[in-house]
């Protein structure tokens, strides 16, 4: 296991296949409802705290998991304190970004490709119809790298950003899918 502190609020743990066997987890088995996953995450957090001083106590924690060449990479990021001590997803600090698509086919291709490649980097999404275009609002979790935004730019045109633009869409556009749009488009149309 390799532990690297990226910043004061982010730590990266690279696990090889032996580490995964010891923890009895795999990429496919990881789930927030699985007790074994929770046990493994607590063990990883304890190791990170012991090695680097990373302490998530009293803060909201974002956990990202990526496949690596010989195992998995975990990124633990602190999102800030919670009032209740529970994870409050609606308080996630994301800024909506809106893309326009000229037709249904390009919108479905863009949304499903984004879901397959970077769905874990999108907090939420919504779909609107404005005049003769489809407008997809996404709330990316990777604002610093803009990976999800750059990827979706290959399929659609960036037309707006921020809560004011999405408020305009809600008022003047027809809301087709209010929440989890990229998930639903992929499930039903791709």
Give the topology, please:
Elements: E1 2-7, E2 10-16, H1 17-23, H2 35-52, E3 59-68, E4 71-81, E5 97-101, H3 104-118, E6 122-130, E7 133-140, H4 147-152, E8 157-161, H5 163-172, E9 174-177, H6 181-189
Antiparallel strand pairs: 1-2, 2-4, 3-4, 5-7, 5-8, 6-7, 6-9
Helix pairs in contact: 3-6
Structural account:
The chain is α+β, with helices and mostly antiparallel strands. Strands 8-5-7-6-9 form a five-stranded antiparallel sheet, sandwiched between helices. Strands 1-2-4-3 form a four-stranded antiparallel sheet. It has two domains: 2-88; 97-189, Alpha-Beta Plaits (2-Layer Sandwich), CATH 3.30.70.1950. It is built from six helices and nine strands, in the order ββααβββαββαβαβα. Residues 82-92 have low confidence and may be disordered. β1 and β2 (10-16) form a beta hairpin. The longest helix is centred in the first third of the chain and has 18 residues, at 35-52. 34% of the residues lie in helices and 34% in strands. It is elongated, with a radius of gyration of 19 Å. The protein has helices at residues 17-23, 35-52, 104-118, 147-152, 163-172, 181-189, and strands spanning 2-7, 10-16, 59-68, 71-81, 97-101, 122-130, 133-140, 157-161, 174-177. α3 (104-118) packs across α6 (181-189).
Bulk shape: elongated
Any guess at the CATH architecture of the largest domain? 2-Layer Sandwich
Neighbour order of strands in the largest sheet: 8-5-7-6-9
Question: So how many helices?
Answer: 6
In round numbers, the mean pLDDT is: 85
Ends apart, CA distance between termini = 38 Å
Structural class: alpha+beta
């Amino acid at each position: 296991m390799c532990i690297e502190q990226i910043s004061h609020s982010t730590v990266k743990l690279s696990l090889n296949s032996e580490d995964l066997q010891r923890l009895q987890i795999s990429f496919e088995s990881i789930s927030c409802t699985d007790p074994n996953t929770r046990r493994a995450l607590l063990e990883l957090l304890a190791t990170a705290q012991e090695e680097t001083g990373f302490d998530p106590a009293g803060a909201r924690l974002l956990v990202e998991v990526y496949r690596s060449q010989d195992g998995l990479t975990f990124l633990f990021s602190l999102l800030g304190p919670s009032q209740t001590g529970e994870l409050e997803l609606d308080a996630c600090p994301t800024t909506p970004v809106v893309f326009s698509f000229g037709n249904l086919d390009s919108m479905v291709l863009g949304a499903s490709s984004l879901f397959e490649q970077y769905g874990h980097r999108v907090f939420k999404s919504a779909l609107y119809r404005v005049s003769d275009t489809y407008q997809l609002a996404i709330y990316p979790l990777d604002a610093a790298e803009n990976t999800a935004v750059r990827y979706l730019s290959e399929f659609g045109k960036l037309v707006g950003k921020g809560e004011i633009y999405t408020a305009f869409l809600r008022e003047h556009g027809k809301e087709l899918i209010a929440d989890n749009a990229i998930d639903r488009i992929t499930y039903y149309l791709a």
